[in-house]
Amino acid sequence: MQAMARALVVVVCSLGSAYGFGTRAALPVQQRSARARCLPQLNVQNLRPVSPSLPGIYRSAAFEQATEADAALLLDGLRIRTVLDLRSQDEIDKALAAATPVGRALFNAYADGAPVGPGQLASEGTGRLRRVHVPLLADVDAFWNEVATRLPPAKKAEAMLYRSVDGKRYDRLLYDELPRQGHSLLYTCMLRSAGPAAWGEALACAADRAGGGVLVHCAKGKDRTGVLCALLQHAAGDDEQQDALTLTLTLTLTLTPTLTLTLTLTLTLTLTLTLTLTLTLTVTLTRSCRSTPPRPRS
Amino acid sequence: MSEYAASAAQLSEEAPTPQMPQMPWQRRRSEPEERAKDDGPVDWSALRGSPAKAMQDTLAWVRQEYGAVDAFLEGAGADEAWRRTLLSRNSR
């Protein structure tokens, strides 16, 4: 059965190469647009390079819904040899239960360490495919206990009251607090509750591209993947503020073509005016210098 | 930050209505999933999207708690040797 699945992916990859996702396909690694930055839109969502500073590291959502073209892109196009899965086991089980045949075959190929080489599933390079599982939210209770420590004082007192007498209201208090404080509470509690060992393992795995490309993913490729990638980008020296500014500008330009045209015309006009003024000033100064008669010596 | 913020644009859909449970943090492992449903569904919609400020705030929290993001990384074992590996461009 497994052999059949692998054979399917081999066929799929050859089809994918025919679609232009071959090993020498030029990938738009440095494209800045939020849309354009994403690799060709397939079934695997949110798939893109982490940063131009970190070649060979990619991020995405889960790939259990992968198609033939997805498999070809991951194995041949991007040469992903290591998959770092940040999901919890129950998420993985659910995703696998609803996986496409190709998605399941891909998962098994990485999990079983399928060999890499000519005639194999992944034909470029040597060694084996690898799957590293670091469930950053494995201890859900530790996560919610961390949320409890971040409650505002009044709610903290309320929580202490409920905790021993009304577990349901206590849970609900915590549940409601997470969306109230938003993403940053989610991320900071994640950073604390996962513990340094898990973060260390994830960071080490993401950095090691000796065997080929690394794909970091969770369920949506947004939160757990987002935090890990932000840490990687920090270590790589990517500028937080500059990066945010670039995104804002890029999104503006992407979303409003009229504004793009206006900005381009304004910029061109400004540059032309500056150039004209500079030339005029230079010519005037040159003439002025030439026309000034030498002073007679006393 | 833009890499993080781009996620919202890449995801074709995020659950438009509150659903239980969806992500690991939307339940307590030790509690049955039905328990939280009793008071009506929790509105998780505030956690959709990927606003750049959320990650900026997260890194600001790390700086406040650990002194620096590098200190957090070092605490997790991501030392200078790790950084050299990370920044090496010899990916095959």
Describe the overall structure.
The complex is a heterodimer of chains A (298) and B (92). Chain A is built from eleven helices and five strands, in the order H-E-E-H-E-H-H-E-H-H-H-H-E-H-H-H. By secondary structure, chain A is an alpha/beta fold. Chain A has a domain of 179 residues: Protein-Tyrosine Phosphatase, Chain A. In chain A, strand 1 and strand 2 form a beta hairpin. The termini of chain A are far apart. The N terminus of chain A is likely disordered. Helices cover 41% and strands 0% of the residues of chain B. Chain B has 92 residues and is mostly helical. The longest helix of chain B is centred in the middle third of the chain and has 15 residues. Chain B has two domains: 49 residues, no CATH class; 42 residues, no CATH class. Chain B is elongated and about 50 Å long. The chains are: A alpha/beta (298), B mainly alpha (92). At the A-B interface, helix 5, helix 7, helix 8, helix 9 and helix 10 of A face helix 1, helix 2, helix 3, helix 4 and helix 5 of B.
Helix content of chain A: 55-70%
Indicate the CATH architecture of the domain at 2-137 and 196-238 in chain A. Answer: Alpha-Beta Complex
What is the distance, rounded to the nearest whole angstrom, between the alpha carbons of the first and last residues of chain B? Answer: 27 Å
Q: Could you give the order of strands across the largest sheet of chain A?
A: 1-2-5-3-4
User: Distance N terminus to C terminus of chain A?
Assistant: 108 Å
Query: Would you count the extended β strands of chain A for me?
Result: 5
Helix and strand composition category of chain B: mainly alpha
**How many discrete structural domains of chain B?**
2
Portion in strands of chain A:
5-15%
Work out the radius of gyration of chain B.
Answer: 18 Å
Name the beta content range of chain B.
under 5%
- Please give the count of helices of chain B: 5
